[in-house]
Automatic annotation (TrEMBL):
SUPFAM superfamilies: Calcium ATPase, transduction domain A, Calcium ATPase, transmembrane domain M, HAD-like, HMA, heavy metal-associated domain. The chain crosses the membrane at residues 125-145, 157-178, 190-206, 218-236, 374-393, 399-423, 693-710. The lineage of its organism: Bacteria, Pseudomonadati, Pseudomonadota, Alphaproteobacteria, Hyphomicrobiales. Belongs to the cation transport ATPase (P-type) (TC 3.A.3) family. Type IB subfamily. It is found in: Cell membrane. It comes from Sinorhizobium kummerowiae. PANTHER family: ATP7, ISOFORM B (PTHR43520), CATION-TRANSPORTING P-TYPE ATPASE-RELATED (PTHR43520:SF5). This is Cation-translocating P-type ATPase. Keywords: ATP-binding, Cell membrane, Ion transport, Magnesium, Membrane, Metal-binding, Nucleotide-binding, Phosphoprotein, Plasmid, Translocase, Transmembrane, Transmembrane helix, Transport. It is a multi-pass membrane protein. InterPro entries: ATPase_P-typ_cyto_dom_N, ATPase_P-typ_P_site, ATPase_P-typ_TM_dom_sf, ATPase_P-typ_transduc_dom_A_sf, ATPase_P-type_domA, HAD-like_sf, HAD_sf, Heavy-metal-associated_CS. PROSITE patterns: ATPASE_E1_E2, COF_2, HMA_1, HMA_2.
Length: 759
């Protein structure tokens, strides 16, 4: 089964192939501004297939001084490049990145979501399998007469007919291997297709030599049958990779291809979703999906937001509400204002999180890539030594060549190259089905190592939608003033104050939000503060079991707002599940001690810390690390971003603040906290399957290589064995879906399927 394929290496070749390379300005417009003078570009590299491809492409890009970092994702055939806008006072030309990749022999163009290319390749592979199978069947029929003792003239005739059938079949069906091998060699490198192309060619060449010399034996049937089995293996590999990525492709289909844009003059135009710009007005009819993130300008409707929050019940949206791409408009037409381009939308972010899982530079992945990179030269050397050895022992060129060909085939490291990525893709898909997005493949590896979970309270252990319970006790003027300050924040308590006050005019002044404390507004009357008691009035107050926010003017308390919040669904069951997994649980909260103590007691958590600043949360995480613990931190707020970055691995709910979601390694979509033990158990099982795949791949070579060297495996047997080893690795990885889907004794079904629980 092949792993590397070739493509056009130059602009001329790209033009001949009908591909128009994007200009520098197109690449600038298509890139994403990351801030700090950095931009990010996504390119498609459809001919990247293995660890050697990753090393070659990433190495070519990292050699450029403009490139900050580059990462290839084999699953989506995609390279993500983060680059500097200027180097040495010179504006960066992104076309240099395309040329650098093309010089290594890989075709590239701007990345766009879609599966057409993959489907075309599958059709070509199936057709190649059919051609090679048809040729192999007919050549075998001719070989029967030869094996039955046909006379010399008949034998030579059948050999020539077999040669005429095998030649075109090898050229057509074997083009995948030959193109890839030639592309690698002419660019001064090797890949996994080189030994395969060499083995098939040598087998056919030896048979043709025997036919010309009126030899008794020829191996045309073995050559074509060998190619037939190799193509079957490659086709199944391609199908398995596609099956492993069904979650991603299914999510990509949630984004519509286009939408109706309303121009200022009232005219309408249907435009592809990639061409919709922020600020444009869109019409979304009932039954259509929202094309890009936006804000409702006119209309009221029910929205199916299950892709966002896992909730099955529709949510009502009206003028002023925000909507996310991929959600389904159920009942009425809506007029929207686009607030983000398609590549920056919610659905694109989630797809990016899914695809990033397979491209992570985890320790296992680095080991497999390094092994695959140096494996091909070792295979060539081993085959050469085998040929020389048999020549010294027997002196029979034909037999020595057959044994060397068998060694070339049987030692192809495809199983080793598939050992890690196929498990990561399946695990990421399984996590997605459970409502968990993975931002980096290494995050799953780190998650499998943790022995401690540290959780934030508001928005993490609770649903993060506190309700103001004493609003009737506060004067309307003070409530309106607090709401005017709260509109500058997205903190859950600030939102609760806004909801209780209704429409409120923002207070003008010098506004500053301090993570973990509150909002400060400098006005002519003085300094208003809305936040924790220490922040607002500079001292302690009466204890209570409810969360509170204080409104003050120059440290004088004006009003005290008290809130209640519900724990997330399945919180206690999730804490118990973590205990069964042997994981200690703790709380790191900035809320007041009585509130945190009450929640910890109700959930059965003995280790908790309250009234922590963002710095103190980081210090608590560092103390756990110094004690030898590897901690998972789960948080959602701006004040949690530092500790999420400092943790061994981190997780945030999808409702978290943008900065918290970006800082986390994993994001869970559904309300139940059961996503945490579910993600840990999935990661642990994925780690076990990766180790099993390493054992299977290495064990196969330990057993198969000596057999081939000793001459007990023909090229045909070697092809079957090599393809079988790769498929065993793939099928072993796919067990992850069924094992976790079935659950384990003593594990609640809701914890195995987090999306099944709703509030």
């Amino acid at each position: 089964m092949s792993c590397c394929a070739a493509g056009a290496a130059t602009n001329l070749a790209a033009e001949r192939a009908g591909q128009r390379l994007p200009s520098s300005e197109e690449l600038w417009l298509a890139s994403r501004d990351l801030g700090g003078g950095l931009r990010q570009t996504e390119l498609s590299v459809p001919n990247a297939y293995c660890g050697a491809c990753i090393a070659t492409i990433e190495g070519a890009l990292r050699a450029k001084p403009e490139v900050e970092r580059a990462r290839v994702n084999l699953s989506s055939r995609r390279v993500s490049i983060v680059w500097k806008e200027e180097v040495g006072g010179r504006r960066t030309n992104p076309c240099d990145f395309l040329h650098a990749i093309a010089e290594r022999g890989y075709q590239t163009h701007l990345f766009s979501f879609g599966g057409e290319e993959s489907d075309d390749l599958l059709k070509q592979l199936i057709l190649a399998v059919a051609v090679s199978g048809f040729a192999a069947t007919n050549i075998m029929l001719l070989s029967v007469s030869v094996w039955s003792g046909a006379d010399a003239a008949t034998r030579d005739l059948f050999h020539w007919i077999s040669a005429l059938i095998a030649g075109p079949a090898l050229i057509y069906a074997g083009r995948f291997f030959y193109k890839s091998a030639w592309n690698a060699i002419r660019h001064g490198r090797t890949n996994m297709d080189v030994p395969i192309a060499l083995a098939v060619s040598l087998s056919y060449g030896m048979s043709l030599h025997e036919t010309i010399g009126h030899g008794e034996h020829a191996w045309f049937d073995a050559s074509v049958t060998l190619l037939f089995f190799l193509l079957i293996g490659r086709t199944l590999d391609h199908m398995m990779r596609g099956r492993a990525r069904t979650a991603i492709s299914g999510l990509a289909r949630l984004s519509p291809r286009g939408a109706t844009v309303v121009h200022p003059d009232g005219s309408r135009e249907y435009r592809p979703v990639d061409e919709i710009k922020p600020g444009e007005r869109l019409i979304v009819a009932a039954g259509e999906r929202i094309p890009v993130d936006g804000r409702v300008l006119h209309g009221t409707s029910d929205l199916d937001r299950s892709v966002v929050n896992g909730e099955s019940s529709p949510a009502v949206v009206a003028t002023g509400d925000t909507v996310q791409a991929g959600t389904l408009n159920l009942t009425g037409p809506l007029t929207l204002e686009a607030t983000a381009a398609a590549r920056d939308s919610f659905i694109a972010e989630i797809i990016g999180l899914m695809e990033a899982a397979e491209g992570g530079r985890a320790r296992y992945r680095r080991i497999a890539d390094r092994a695959a990179r140096y494996y091909s030269p070792a295979v060539h050397l081993l085959a050469l030594l085998t040929f020389v050895g048999w020549m010294l022992v027997e002196g029979d060129v034909r037999h020595a060549m057959l044994v060397a060909v068998a060694v070339l085939i049987i030692t192809c490291p495809c199983a080793l190259g598939l050992a890690v990525p196929v498990v990561q893709v399946v695990a990421a898909g399984r996590l997605f089905q459970g409502g968990v997005m993975v931002k980096d493949g290494s995050a799953m590896e780190r998650l499998a190592e943790i022995d401690t979970v540290l959780l934030d309270k508001t928005g993490t252990l609770t649903i993060g939608r506190p309700r103001l319970v004493n609003g009737h006790e506060i004067s309307p003027g003070r409530l309106a003033m607090a709401a005017g300050i709260a509109v500058h924040s997205r903190h859950p308590m600030a939102i609760a104050i806004q909801n209780s006050a209704g429409a409120a005019s923002p207070i003008a002044g010098d506004i500053r939000e301090i993570p973990g404390a509150g909002i400060e507004v400098k006005t002519k009357e003085g300094i208003y503060r809305l936040g924790s008691r220490d922040f607002a009035v500079g001292g302690p107050g009466p204890d209570g079991g409810q969360s509170e926010t204080i409104l003050s003017l120059d440290f004088c308390e004006l009003a005290c707002f008290r809130f209640e919040d519900r724990p997330r669904p399945a919180s206690r069951e999730s804490i118990e599940a973590l205990g069964r997994l042997g994981i200690a649980t703790g709380i790191l909260s900035g809320d007041r001690e009585p509130v945190v103590a009450a929640l910890a007691s109700s959930l059965g958590i003995a280790n908790w810390h309250a009234e922590l600043s963002p710095r103190e949360k980081v210090e608590a995480c560092a103390v756990a690390a110094e004690a030898g613990h590897k901690a998972l931190v789960v948080g959602d707020g701006i004040n949690d971003a530092p500790v999420l970055r400092a943790a061994h691995v981190s997780m945030a709910p999808a409702t978290a603040a943008d900065v918290g979601r970006q800082a986390a390694d994993l994001v869970f979509m559904h309300q139940p906290l059961s996503a945490v033990p579910f993600a840990i158990e999935t990661s642990r099982h994925a780690g076990r399957l990766i180790r099993q795949n390493f054992v299977l791949a290495i064990g196969y070579n330990v057993i198969a290589v000596p057999i081939a060297i000793l001459g007990y495996a023909t090229p045909l047997v070697a092809a079957v064995a090599m393809s079988t080893s790769s498929l065993v690795v793939v099928f072993n990885a796919l067990r992850l879906k069924h094992t976790l889907a079935d659950g384990k004794p003593g594990t609640p079904a809701t914890l195995m399927h987090p999306g099944a629980v709703t509030s």
